[in-house]
């Protein structure tokens, strides 16, 4: 039994040792380019609220928030709170506005995520029509009852705003440039996720079809959203390996692709985020979060 485990381990090392370095480095570049897109989208939303935070301050807060997401349970639970506190303390944005800027970002994300979710359900669900109707109803209710949704979100985050700040928040929905720009930027972020996965598979000499890469990327996205463990550890890896093998990849290649993808999106991002947190004022924000 031990001999079999050692042999299997050697097989994984041999496969990983044949990874194409240029494709691997390109995948890392694409990951951090998507972080810049996140920051551009956030800056667009904040400008719509009348706040102009330095771009690289937003980038640093996002990198640090990735670290927090990777060490706290539930998807984005710790990172979003850190982002809100970061720009409130270091960017001079009132807490209520910073809270709603993050909430509004998530609303803008619902469009591409919903589209990707529906595409994925065509492959994994026997009732795509029901899911489509439920999704449309949920998004429509949020949009129609936007003011109620805003007030509930503020109560959840325990943030208070005055009437002027509330008007800035509510006016975002009427700003078509911000809404359309945010949706396009959100879509490009998820497109870059697909490109990153494609580059990782190419690094192993795999020439998978683009539709297949899209479906695998959707599965990876959904697993990350529903995972309860810090950074989705265990759940994302198992789900991604299972999805890849379901579509015909040998287990050795499926595990190797997953290891490289998670090295970029979890291990490396955790290290970079931790360094940013320590060196860019994140400790001050962290102490403020822990104080009463």
From TrEMBL:
Localization (cell): Cell membrane
Major subcellular location class: membrane
Keywords: Cell membrane, Membrane, Transmembrane, Transmembrane helix
Top-level taxon: Archaea
Topological category with respect to the lipid bilayer: Multi-pass membrane protein
Keyword Membrane appears in the UniProt entry: yes
Pfam family, any one: LPG_synthase_TM
Protein name: TIGR00374 family protein
Signal sequence bounds: none
Family, similarity comment: Belongs to the UPF0104 family.
Any single Gene Ontology cellular-component annotation: plasma membrane
TM stretches of this protein: 20-40, 107-124, 175-192, 204-228, 235-257, 263-282
């Amino acid at each position: 039994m031990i001999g079999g485990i050692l042999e299997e381990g050697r097989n994984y090392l041999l496969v990983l040792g044949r990874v194409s370095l240029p494709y691997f480095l390109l995948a890392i570049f694409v990951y951090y380019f998507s972080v810049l897109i996140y920051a551009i989208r956030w800056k667009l939303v904040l400008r719509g609220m009348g706040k102009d935070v330095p771009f690289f301050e937003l980038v640093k807060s996002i990198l640090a928030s990735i670290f927090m997401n990777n060490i706290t349970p539930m998807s984005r639970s710790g990172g979003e709170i850190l982002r809100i506190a970061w720009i409130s303390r270091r960017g001079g944005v009132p807490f209520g506005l910073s809270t709603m800027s993050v909430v509004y970002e998530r609303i803008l994300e619902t469009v591409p995520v919903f589209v990707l979710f529906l595409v994925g359900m065509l492959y994994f669900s026997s009732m795509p029509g029901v899911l489509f109707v439920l999704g449309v109803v949920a998004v429509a209710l949020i949009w129609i009852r936007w003011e109620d949704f805003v007030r509930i979100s503020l109560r959840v985050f325990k943030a208070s705003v005055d009437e002027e700040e509330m008007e800035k928040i509510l006016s975002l929905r009427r700003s078509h440039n911000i809404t359309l720009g945010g949706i396009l930027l959100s879509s490009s972020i998820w497109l870059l996720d697909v490109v990153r996965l494609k580059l990782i598979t190419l690094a192993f000499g795999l020439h998978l079809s683009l539709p297949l890469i899209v479906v695998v990327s959707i599965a990876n996205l959904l697993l990350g959203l529903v995972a309860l463990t810090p950074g989705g550890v265990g759940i994302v890896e198992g789900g991604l390996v299972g999805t890849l093998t379901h579509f015909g990849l040998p287990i050795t290649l499926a595990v190797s692709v997953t290891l490289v993808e998670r090295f970029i999106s979890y291990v490396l991002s955790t290290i970079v985020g931790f360094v940013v947190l320590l060196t860019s004022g994140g400790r001050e924000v962290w102490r403020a979060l822990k104080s009463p």
